[in-house]
Amino acid sequence: MGTDITPTGMGQKEVYNFMSRLIGLGFEGVVAGDPNCKEGYVTTTSVRMDGRIYYVINGVRYSAKGVEAVLANGTDNITTGGFGAWRIMIDATGTLTTVAAVAAGGDMNFTVAEDALMNLASQAPTASAVDVGYLVIEAAGGGFTIGTDLPVTSDAAVTSATYYSVGAVVDDNGLTAPMSLSLGVGTTPEQYSHGTVNARTNGQTVAQIAAGATVAFDDADTIGTAVQFGGHLIITDLAGTGLYALAANGVAGAVSAMTFATAALANTDLDTVETRLPMLFTVIGRIVVASAKAPFAYITDDINGTDGTATFTSKGVEVPRLTFQDLS
User: What's phi and psi for 191, nearest 5 deg?
Assistant: First the structure.
């Protein structure tokens, strides 16, 4: 269905009746319209939601169009050749805000766009606001100065600026068919395995991801001591052609040292990261490992054997909460 869920020609009364139906079904976020996120033109160093959207926050319906926001972390930079990313959000007053992929006071220097976008899950979003899009910038020579350089590819400080607009939340991210095999230990015990993956991401069905018998963890994460725990969400990658193991702190592209005292604590943090994950990625499951050594090193140590014991949890099919019959 994508972002064209609102039938063409709907008047305002019909739109609000439609939104009332969505509220009754528990939807939160953008429910119709296209945010059309892009560079600002009132303030050229800002970002803009140029399109008209209808959205729900805490069970209340709103609409907005043509609002701008400065890029967060305005005293920081993206270092030369590095990537940085922002979450673009809107609140009940129609105010647009942004959240950077790192806390204020630290420059962004991610190796690839995917890492920058995934790291948005490590930062707390704006309270009582919903996502309308994301921006990722690759800095050119000399770096990108936030609040000074323009967030557009034509700027001399920018190699590329890519804007993503969120799809309507009526098209929930999730599996569209059961995996042919659940998550499990790989043929090589340091790795994991999975069946075929059919997923819907940001309102679009992505091509089937082939089953994998020996999938390595992406980062050399660690667990501090024996009888401590580590956890990862297994998510689709940015291209939608493979999977990524994202640590329980939401950090991608760097080593995460995990020291959870219980599996429950690891799962609590995984729950938080899952709620913060941009809609550009779909969660297919999670893996929690109880370490049997100090320290435990992902990539080289057995996740389910001599070095640790793994618990695998796979997602089921995300059944659509809305059908075309609901629009009648």
Answer: -120, 175
Cβ-based neighbour number of residue 263 at 10 Å: 16
Q: Where are the alpha helices (DSSP H) in 79-191?
A: 113-118
pTM: 0.91
**For residues 197 and 235, what is the distance between their CA atoms, to the nearest angstrom?**
10
Give the 3-state DSSP-derived string for 216-236, with helices as H, strands as E and coil as C: CCCCCCEECCCCCEEEEEEEE
Q: What is the DSSP letter of 249?
A: T
User: For residue range 103-140, what is the model confidence (pLDDT) as tens digits?
Assistant: 988 899 999 999 999 999 999 999 999 999 999 999 99
φ and ψ of 37, to 5 deg: -70, 140
Measure the CA–CA gap between 67 and 38, rounded to whole angstroms.
Answer: 11
- Looking at the DSSP bridge assignments, the partners of residue 48 are 38, 68
178 pLDDT tier (thresholds 50, 70, 90)? very high
Q: Do the beta carbons of residue 161 and residue 135 sit within 8 Å?
A: yes
Domain ranges, ordered by start, for the chain: 2-165, 174-314
Length of the chain: 328
Q: Look-up: residue for tokens 């953008």?
A: 30
Among the listed residues 267, 226, 270, the one whose alpha carbon sits nearest the alpha carbon of residue 246: 270
CA dihedral 105, 38, 70, 161 (to 10 degrees): 30
| Mean pLDDT along residues 14-29 | 70
Please report where in the chains the tokens 């995460």 appear, as a residue. Answer: 256
Question: 98 burial class (0-12, 13-18, 19+ CB within 10 angstroms)?
Answer: buried
